[in-house]
């Protein structure tokens, strides 16, 4: 499946969230990741983020697609993440 992850963590936990997300997905820009991921790794990613989240302060959003071909991405402005991270 193709996943887009967007999160907003308190500054005390944001580096932990970044480290977790980078294990599974490609960094696109601040607090945004995307990539193809297996169902098993998707479950692991969610569990790891759930372990560090404070639900009263932090938020996580996942957008899931069967494959990347069913998604469309338009980009303008300053590019972050570099070409090597774009699928």
TrEMBL record:
SUPFAM superfamilies assigned: TTP0101/SSO1404-like
One annotated GO molecular function: RNA endonuclease activity
Membrane-crossing segments per the record: none
Residue numbers binding Mg(2+): 8
Protein family membership: Belongs to the CRISPR-associated endoribonuclease Cas2 protein family.
Subunit architecture: Homodimer, forms a heterotetramer with a Cas1 homodimer.
Claim: Metal-binding is one of the keywords in the record: yes
Organism for this UniProt entry: Anoxybacillus mongoliensis
Keyword Repeat: no
Cofactor: Mg(2+)
Keywords linked to the UniProt accession: Antiviral defense, Endonuclease, Hydrolase, Magnesium, Metal-binding, Nuclease
Function: CRISPR (clustered regularly interspaced short palindromic repeat), is an adaptive immune system that provides protection against mobile genetic elements (viruses, transposable elements and conjugative plasmids). CRISPR clusters contain sequences complementary to antecedent mobile elements and target invading nucleic acids. CRISPR clusters are transcribed and processed into CRISPR RNA (crRNA). Functions as a ssRNA-specific endoribonuclease. Involved in the integration of spacer DNA into the CRISPR cassette.
EC number: 3.1.-.-
GO terms for biological process, alphabetical: defense response to virus; maintenance of CRISPR repeat elements
Pfam family, one: CRISPR_Cas2
Classification via InterPro entries: CRISPR_associated_Cas2, Virulence_VapD/CRISPR_Cas2
Protein name: CRISPR-associated endoribonuclease Cas2
């Amino acid at each position: 499946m193709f996943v887009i992850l967007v999160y907003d963590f308190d500054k005390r936990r944001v580096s932990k969230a970044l480290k977790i997300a980078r294990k599974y997905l490609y960094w696109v820009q601040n607090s945004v990741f995307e990539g193809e991921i297996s169902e098993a790794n998707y479950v692991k990613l969610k569990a790891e983020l759930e372990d560090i989240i404070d639900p009263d302060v932090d938020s996580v959003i996942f957008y899931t697609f069967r494959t990347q071909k069913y998604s469309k991405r338009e980009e303008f402005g300053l590019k972050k993440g570099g070409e090597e991270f774009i699928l």
